[in-house]
Fold this protein.
Amino acid sequence: MSSTNNDLFDVLANSPLGHLVIAPDGSIRLLNENFTRITGYGQEDISHIHEWFFLASGDPDLGDDWIAQWEDWGKQGKPVSGVWEFFSRNERLLQLDISLSFLSDGHCVLAVRDETQQIRLAKELADHQEKHSALS
């Protein structure tokens, strides 16, 4: 592995975001501590991206859909980002802001941030404002 790759791995390993580095064959090359903190899944739980899709989907059919989507994105090689629902290892429903970057060597860097609390609070605020305006 090149010095540049080692530097990238060091940065990602110590990032405040959760990160996975996924090899072209889907195997997990790096899973940082913040990924485990956010999702509950560690290196001992997932060695391949497909394993995480099946565990975190809560539904084998949905896991299959995620795998198909993942493979399509990989073929396109374009960055992808969005908020998706995943289950944590302790079966808590999370809303994760995920960004995927496909590298020229076929690897993928996945960055994850937990947006569950922010989305819940935004919904509560909107509900409160709606009730308040209905009373006015």
